[in-house]
Amino acid sequence: MSFKISKPLWQAVSLGAIAGSRAMSAPAITSHILSHHQTDNLANSPLKFMQSGKTATAFKLLAFGEFVGDKLPTAPNRIALPGLTGRFLTGALAGASVYKAGGGKAYLGAILGGSAALLSSFGCFYLRKATVKSTKILDPLIGGLEDALVIGASAGLAKSA
Protein backbone atom coordinates (compact mmCIF):
# COMPACT_ATOMS: atom_id res chain seq x y z
CA MET A 1 0.00 0.00 0.00
CA SER A 2 1.29 3.43 -0.90
CA PHE A 3 1.56 5.92 1.92
CA LYS A 4 2.16 9.62 1.80
CA ILE A 5 1.76 12.15 4.55
CA SER A 6 -0.03 14.85 2.60
CA LYS A 7 -0.50 17.51 5.29
CA PRO A 8 2.42 17.21 7.72
CA LEU A 9 2.02 20.77 9.02
CA TRP A 10 -1.58 20.21 10.12
CA GLN A 11 -0.87 16.70 11.33
CA ALA A 12 2.02 17.99 13.48
CA VAL A 13 -0.20 20.73 14.93
CA SER A 14 -3.06 18.27 15.50
CA LEU A 15 -0.80 15.79 17.25
CA GLY A 16 0.55 18.59 19.42
CA ALA A 17 -3.00 19.58 20.36
CA ILE A 18 -3.71 15.98 21.31
CA ALA A 19 -0.53 15.93 23.45
CA GLY A 20 -1.81 18.98 25.31
CA SER A 21 -4.85 17.00 26.37
CA ARG A 22 -3.30 13.55 26.81
CA ALA A 23 0.48 13.57 26.59
CA MET A 24 1.05 9.93 25.66
CA SER A 25 -1.72 9.75 23.06
CA ALA A 26 0.19 11.84 20.52
CA PRO A 27 3.25 9.57 20.29
CA ALA A 28 0.97 6.52 20.52
CA ILE A 29 -1.06 7.48 17.46
CA THR A 30 2.02 8.71 15.59
CA SER A 31 3.91 5.49 16.19
CA HIS A 32 0.81 3.45 15.32
CA ILE A 33 0.50 5.21 11.97
CA LEU A 34 4.21 5.03 11.19
CA SER A 35 4.51 1.37 12.20
CA HIS A 36 1.79 0.50 9.68
CA HIS A 37 3.20 2.76 6.96
CA GLN A 38 6.99 2.54 6.87
CA THR A 39 8.71 5.41 5.11
CA ASP A 40 12.27 5.80 3.86
CA ASN A 41 12.25 9.38 5.16
CA LEU A 42 12.87 8.01 8.65
CA ALA A 43 15.32 5.27 7.60
CA ASN A 44 18.50 7.09 8.66
CA SER A 45 16.91 9.28 11.29
CA PRO A 46 17.04 9.06 15.09
CA LEU A 47 13.23 8.99 14.81
CA LYS A 48 13.27 5.62 13.04
CA PHE A 49 12.20 3.91 16.30
CA MET A 50 8.75 5.52 15.86
CA GLN A 51 8.11 3.05 13.01
CA SER A 52 8.52 0.04 15.30
CA GLY A 53 5.49 -2.02 16.27
CA LYS A 54 7.01 -2.51 19.72
CA THR A 55 7.32 1.25 20.15
CA ALA A 56 3.69 1.69 19.10
CA THR A 57 2.58 -0.93 21.64
CA ALA A 58 4.63 0.65 24.43
CA PHE A 59 3.18 4.10 23.75
CA LYS A 60 -0.36 2.67 23.59
CA LEU A 61 0.11 1.08 27.02
CA LEU A 62 1.43 4.36 28.41
CA ALA A 63 -1.54 6.21 26.86
CA PHE A 64 -3.97 3.76 28.46
CA GLY A 65 -2.28 4.26 31.82
CA GLU A 66 -2.60 8.00 31.39
CA PHE A 67 -6.34 7.67 30.65
CA VAL A 68 -6.75 5.85 33.97
CA GLY A 69 -4.36 8.03 35.98
CA ASP A 70 -6.00 11.26 34.84
CA LYS A 71 -9.19 10.36 36.73
CA LEU A 72 -7.45 9.87 40.08
CA PRO A 73 -7.67 12.65 42.66
CA THR A 74 -3.89 12.56 42.96
CA ALA A 75 -3.39 13.33 39.25
CA PRO A 76 -0.99 16.25 38.91
CA ASN A 77 -2.03 19.54 37.39
CA ARG A 78 -1.36 19.45 33.63
CA ILE A 79 -0.05 23.01 33.60
CA ALA A 80 2.42 22.45 36.42
CA LEU A 81 5.98 22.50 35.06
CA PRO A 82 6.60 18.71 35.01
CA GLY A 83 3.32 17.98 33.20
CA LEU A 84 3.74 20.88 30.83
CA THR A 85 7.28 19.79 30.01
CA GLY A 86 6.13 16.24 29.31
CA ARG A 87 3.31 17.45 27.06
CA PHE A 88 5.69 19.73 25.18
CA LEU A 89 8.17 16.89 24.66
CA THR A 90 5.61 14.33 23.51
CA GLY A 91 4.02 16.89 21.19
CA ALA A 92 7.46 17.73 19.82
CA LEU A 93 8.28 14.03 19.32
CA ALA A 94 5.03 13.36 17.49
CA GLY A 95 5.33 16.53 15.41
CA ALA A 96 8.96 15.87 14.49
CA SER A 97 8.19 12.27 13.53
CA VAL A 98 5.24 13.02 11.29
CA TYR A 99 6.92 16.05 9.73
CA LYS A 100 10.11 14.11 8.98
CA ALA A 101 8.07 11.17 7.67
CA GLY A 102 6.38 13.62 5.32
CA GLY A 103 9.74 14.74 3.95
CA GLY A 104 10.16 17.88 6.04
CA LYS A 105 12.67 18.99 8.64
CA ALA A 106 12.19 17.27 12.00
CA TYR A 107 12.99 20.42 13.98
CA LEU A 108 10.11 22.30 12.31
CA GLY A 109 7.71 19.50 13.20
CA ALA A 110 9.03 19.53 16.75
CA ILE A 111 8.44 23.27 17.06
CA LEU A 112 4.92 22.94 15.65
CA GLY A 113 4.00 19.92 17.77
CA GLY A 114 5.54 21.25 20.97
CA SER A 115 4.00 24.71 20.59
CA ALA A 116 0.56 23.26 19.88
CA ALA A 117 0.93 21.03 22.94
CA LEU A 118 1.68 24.03 25.18
CA LEU A 119 -1.28 26.00 23.87
CA SER A 120 -3.59 23.01 24.08
CA SER A 121 -2.46 22.21 27.63
CA PHE A 122 -3.65 25.58 28.88
CA GLY A 123 -6.78 25.56 26.74
CA CYS A 124 -7.83 22.10 27.86
CA PHE A 125 -7.01 22.84 31.49
CA TYR A 126 -9.13 25.98 31.71
CA LEU A 127 -11.94 24.54 29.58
CA ARG A 128 -12.16 21.48 31.82
CA LYS A 129 -12.11 23.61 35.00
CA ALA A 130 -14.83 25.92 33.66
CA THR A 131 -16.97 23.01 32.49
CA VAL A 132 -16.80 21.29 35.87
CA LYS A 133 -17.61 24.55 37.66
CA SER A 134 -20.52 25.56 35.45
CA THR A 135 -22.15 22.14 35.03
CA LYS A 136 -21.39 20.64 38.46
CA ILE A 137 -20.51 17.39 36.63
CA LEU A 138 -17.78 15.48 38.44
CA ASP A 139 -14.29 16.13 37.11
CA PRO A 140 -13.58 12.44 36.28
CA LEU A 141 -16.67 12.38 34.05
CA ILE A 142 -15.51 15.47 32.19
CA GLY A 143 -12.12 13.76 31.93
CA GLY A 144 -13.88 10.79 30.33
CA LEU A 145 -15.43 13.10 27.75
CA GLU A 146 -11.99 14.56 27.12
CA ASP A 147 -10.70 11.01 26.60
CA ALA A 148 -13.45 10.37 24.06
CA LEU A 149 -12.47 13.51 22.15
CA VAL A 150 -8.81 12.47 22.14
CA ILE A 151 -9.68 8.96 20.92
CA GLY A 152 -11.95 10.38 18.21
CA ALA A 153 -9.33 12.87 17.04
CA SER A 154 -6.67 10.16 17.04
CA ALA A 155 -8.87 7.84 15.02
CA GLY A 156 -9.51 10.65 12.53
CA LEU A 157 -5.77 11.27 12.16
CA ALA A 158 -5.08 7.56 11.71
CA LYS A 159 -7.80 7.29 9.07
CA SER A 160 -6.56 10.33 7.15
CA ALA A 161 -2.99 9.01 7.06
UniProtKB/TrEMBL annotation:
Organism, by scientific name, is Mucilaginibacter terrae
- The chain positions of domain DUF4126 read 11-154
Write down what this protein is called: Membrane protein
Q: Which residues cross the membrane?
A: 106-127
Q: Signal peptide position in this chain?
A: 1-19
The UniProt keyword set, sorted, is:
Membrane, Signal, Transmembrane, Transmembrane helix
Q: Which domain of life is it from?
A: Bacteria
Entries under InterPro entries matching the protein: DUF4126
